[in-house]
Design brief:
Bound molecules: adenosine-5'-triphosphate, magnesium ion
CATH class of the largest domain in chain B: Alpha Beta
Radius of gyration of chain A: 22 Å
Order of helices and strands of chain A: HHEEEEHHEHEEEHEEEHHHHH
Number of strands of chain A: 11
Strand content of chain B: 25-35%
Radius of gyration of chain B: 29 Å
Oligomer: heterodimer
Strand order of the largest sheet of chain B: 11-10-25-24-23-12-22-21-13-20-16-17
Number of strands of chain B: 25
Number of domains of chain B: 3
Structural class of chain B: alpha/beta
Largest sheet of chain A: 9 strands, mixed
Shape of chain A: globular
CATH architecture of the largest domain in chain A: 2-Layer Sandwich
CATH topology of the largest domain in chain A: archaeoglobus fulgidus dsm 4304 fold
Structural class of chain A: alpha+beta
Strand content of chain A: 15-25%
Helix content of chain B: 25-40%
Number of domains of chain A: 2
Number of helices of chain B: 16
Chain lengths: 327, 533
């Protein structure tokens, strides 16, 4: 059973059921690039949660490269976020208004986990917006993730797309993992199987495949862009889902060529290096999460709560089951 | 990495944008860990050859009022990444040179305070304190603890720190010294430099001990070809007294022909030379009882002497062996005469001169024999003087080449062991030179207060030394193994840690000494003025 889901029996069935043709695999020629590459990422770690509210540590920002040289990493948001369906409008609205000129959104229906995810994404968009301010025409902005996003935030994304187009900046979302699938009878992993076929068709080369008009659901139509599967580096076997706004449609080959030249670092072969760095500089480590948890507890103690009250509040029942003690 | 703004995670969303910019900072040459007994710091993983970090180099860490010094023990590849990400070759190159680095593991030597005092450190440098290669400035305090016998310059890794001479202490010389190196690494060169410094001290009226060198290879007197000898140090020639068994050498002005009188040879000296059976050893002991010590050599070789031995109950054959061996020795050592140089040698030593006994082409056994006679004479005389309270005489240091022959575990040469054990009481020290320290008795080795260790390839030699040395040398194992010709680690109790040195090449030192102004201000501890060309 498991094998059925993973292995690819033959290229013919893949071609037939996805609508992909061999000629859809397009070779990417790595080319030098003198502009800057911005890579935006975010991170979200749960500090504690109880049934009515939860606290997360959220961080967002971006790394900037010129060629192989790292210039700087900017953290645009680094704070705890308290998710409470009633209170948290106040936390979203100012950002939406100030950065995207949008009216507030309705979050009443959202569960707590969703709220912190939304918030992290919102902060990532704020970071993208910042890079748009810094970038020059011809530069590339990469976003870790996909543009097929929660409906509530599509408005912000639309503003970003418009600003990118206006500025002449390439904007791509690169997803480390994707849930794209194909298959009429069972659900088969699309990116992985595309990899295998791409390796066969264009061995040891970088290439991309557009999913336009293919029988693969990538949320086409829900957002104003196209989805691709891209191999950034010929020496690598890894492929990525890449989303790009419609205005980039005709430039994809050249933009990907520029990225390919900077996706061959020894640190992380096959992945745009700027995203690698952004991930590392922005991620919240386990120790950081633990430290914040500890400081939060100290504050609560100061404010007069007792140890057992706090423990009740902050310890996940999972931890109790696993006999871990956070404190 | 440098952050331009304090973290503020707990201030819940006070302002909308709280930018924190991380820019390229100095990520290397910083202390990153780890304890009072071991420092780790980072250096770039790729460095030009002349800046590469080497085992043995000394780095300094300036941290507020203190300057910590640490010696490199090892260097490891390292990075901010986890796991085995870097064990396969892939990609074209590293992009983030600030994330990949070498981790240098260093041993704390101690720290210098504002008053330029050096102390062992009971604390550790602040995390991320910056680290630099120690330069002459940081080593200045060392000049203050150096002694009066210059032997080389301080070395930091393979680099010379010419401004800081390495000098041994005269006061430590009766506490014995060891000079250890694999053959050809520079033992003889060291001894000549050492002797030259002693001659210089004498000429300036500053000598505190006499140095005896018995040279079986004939290399110290006049050298060979481009290799110079002690007589080439003309300026301080007055500090050197030479004796030679070689007629031709002895005809040089200022070299006396060596002579030892029969009366100065004791049965024990003969005993030293051979393996003896029990009755033979008995017979030797008896000799000193029944014959006059001044004429026993002559008497025992006469028919009357033989008869007296037989009377004492010894077998003919036993006595015959004894006599044959004595005759052998006498024949082999033509310097044994009626006249003697010993009193003169002793007088020169007590004045604080360098005494060179040149015995070229002499057999191993004869050399030992001679060394034994001279040493015993010296020790006895120093013992007497001690009792008579002779204040004016200087101490004395007796050099033994191939010392493993006489200071080995289980060797039958109690004489030198007795100097090693009790010489100090009377102001007589030993300078043991050997290529095989592993053969030297461990307990003796632990009595040596000064060690000059040069390249030692044999692990057993190093281990043996490290186990018995007074100062801890174990962390310097790699360094000692990789020392090059002329490089040394000098360990002596008056200097707070084993000091890496480059011993002067004797010929260079000679040139420098010949050039210096003889009247130049006296060397005083700490104010030593180096002579740079
Ligand atoms: N400090 C030094 N600087 C430069 N050259 C040196 C130094 N020490 C020794 N040498 C050179 O190395 C060679 C061997 O030195 P030396 O004879 O002193 O070695 P050794 O250890 O006494 O050898 P052996 O075991 O044969 O007695 C000589 O040519 C000498 O000039
Ligand atoms: Mg030698």
């Amino acid at each position: 059973m498991i094998r059925d889901h993973i292995s690819l029996d033959g290229i013919d069935r893949y071609l037939a059921e996805t609508g992909v043709q061999e000629s859809d695999f397009v070779l990417v020629e790595p080319s030098d690039f003198t502009g800057e590459i911005f890579a935006v990422d975010g991170s979200n770690v749960s500090i504690c949660n109880w049934s009515m509210a939860s606290v997360n540590l959220i961080r967002a920002g971006y790394a900037v490269y010129r060629g192989r040289v790292w210039r700087r990493t900017v953290i645009t948001f680094d704070d705890v976020f308290m998710a409470d369906a009633k209170l948290c409008r106040n936390m979203f609205d100012p950002y939406l208004e100030q950065f995207f000129g949008l009216k507030g959104i309705d979050l009443k229906e959202s569960d707590l986990d969703r709220l912190s995810s939304y918030y992290r994404e919102l902060q990532e968009y704020v970071a993208i917006n910042e890079t748009l301010g810094e970038a020059h025409a011809g530069d590339i902005i990469l976003y870790d993730g996909s543009f097929d996003v929660f409906e509530l935030l599509r408005g912000a994304l639309a503003v970003i797309f418009a600003r990118a187009e206006e500025k002449g900046v390439a904007l791509l979302a690169v997803a480390k993992s994707s849930s794209l699938f194909w298959g009429e009878e069972i659900t088969l992993p699309f990116v992985q199987h595309t990899s295998t076929i791409g390796s066969g068709l264009l061995p040891e080369a970088a290439w991309y495949l557009s999913l336009k008009d293919k029988k693969v659901d990538a949320g086409q139509g829900r957002w104003n862009g196209e989805t691709y599967v891209v191999r950034f580096c010929g020496e690598s076997e890894h492929d990525f889902r890449v989303d790009a706004p419609l205005f980039l449609q005709d430039e994809m080959g050249s933009v990907l060529g520029k990225l390919a030249a900077y996706s061959c670092s020894s640190e992380c072969l096959g992945y745009p290096h700027a995203l690698f760095r952004a991930h590392r500089d922005i991620r919240i480590t386990e120790q950081e999460g633990a430290a914040v948890r500890q400081r939060l507890m100290a504050r609560l103690l100061e404010s007069g709560m007792t140890h057992s009250e706090i423990r009740m509040l902050m310890q996940d029942f999972h931890d109790i089951l696993e006999m871990r003690s956070g404190f | 990495m440098a952050t331009t703004q304090e973290e503020n995670q707990l201030r819940m969303g006070e302002s909308l944008l709280n930018r924190k910019v991380i820019v390229k900072g100095d990520t290397t040459y910083k202390i990153v860990s780890k304890s009072v007994t071991e420092y780790h710091f980072t250096v770039p993983f790729i460095l030009p050859d002349e800046e590469r970090v080497e085992v043995g180099q000394i780095f300094s860490i300036k941290d507020q009022g203190l300057t910590f010094l640490a010696r490199v023990l090892n260097i490891e590849h390292s990075s901010n990444y986890d796991g085995h990400w870097d064990t396969t070759m892939k990609g074209t190159q590293f992009f983030d040179q600030d994330q990949i680095f070498n981790r240098v593991i260093a041993e704390p030597l101690g720290c210098i305070n504002k008053k330029l005092e050096f102390k062992k450190s009971r604390t550790l440098p602040t995390k991320f304190a910056s680290v630099t290669r120690a330069e002459k400035e940081e080593f200045k305090f060392l000049s203050q603890v150096m002694g009066d016998i210059e032997v080389g310059y301080l070395r930091n890794g393979s680099r010379l720190v010419e401004e800081i001479p390495v000098a041994l202490h005269s006061e430590a010389m009766d506490h014995h010294m060891g000079v250890f190196a694999t053959t050809g690494m520079g033992k003889s060169n060291f001894m000549k430099v050492f002797a030259a410094s002693c001659m210089r001290l004498f000429a300036r009226g500053e000598s505190k001990f006499g140095l005896l060198i018995v040279d079986p290879h004939g290399e110290y007197l006049k050298g060979k070809g481009p290799i110079k000898g002690l007589t080439h140090l003309k300026k301080y020639r007055e500090g050197l007294a030479c004796y030679s068994t070689n007629r031709q050498n002895a005809s040089d002005p200022g070299v006396e022909e060596l002579a030892i009188s029969e009366s100065e040879i004791f049965p024990q000296d003969i005993a030293l030379l051979y393996e003896w059976s029990l009755p033979q050893r008995d017979a030797l002991d008896t000799v000193s009882r029944i014959f006059d010590s001044a004429s026993w050599l002559e008497e025992i070789q006469s028919p009357e002497g033989m008869a007296r031995m037989v009377q004492e109950g010894f077998k003919d054959s036993t006595v015959m062996v004894l006599i044959r061996r004595i005759k052998n020795e006498m024949g082999r050592n033509p310097y044994i005469r009626k006249r003697s140089s010993l009193a003169n040698i002793l007088a020169n030593l007590q004045k604080g001169k360098v005494v060179l006994v040149d015995i070229p082409r002499m057999s191993d056994r004869s050399e030992l024999f001679l060394l034994s006679v001279i040493s015993r004479y010296i020790l006895d005389e120093y013992k007497k003087d001690e009792q008579e309270g002779q204040e004016s005489r200087k101490n004395c240091l007796i050099t033994i080449e191939e010392a493993q022959r006489v200071l080995g575990a289980g060797s039958n040469t109690a004489r030198f062991e007795s100097i090693a054990r009790e010489g100090r009481k009377f102001g007589v020290g030993l300078c043991a030179i050997t290529q095989q320290p592993k053969l030297i008795d461990k307990q003796l080795l632990s009595q040596f207060n000064t060690l000059v260790v040069m390249g030692l390839g044999d692990r057993n030699d190093r281990q043996h030394l490290e186990e018995s040395a007074k100062q801890d040398l174990s962390s310097m194992d790699i360094e000692i193994q990789t020392l090059e010709k002329g490089e040394a680690v000098v360990s002596t109790l008056n200097i707070p840690f084993p000091v890496p040195a480059r011993i002067h090449r004797y010929e260079d030192y000679l040139r420098r000494l010949e050039k210096e102004d003889k009247q130049e201000s006296l060397i005083t501890r700490g104010g030593f003025k180096p002579f740079l060309e």
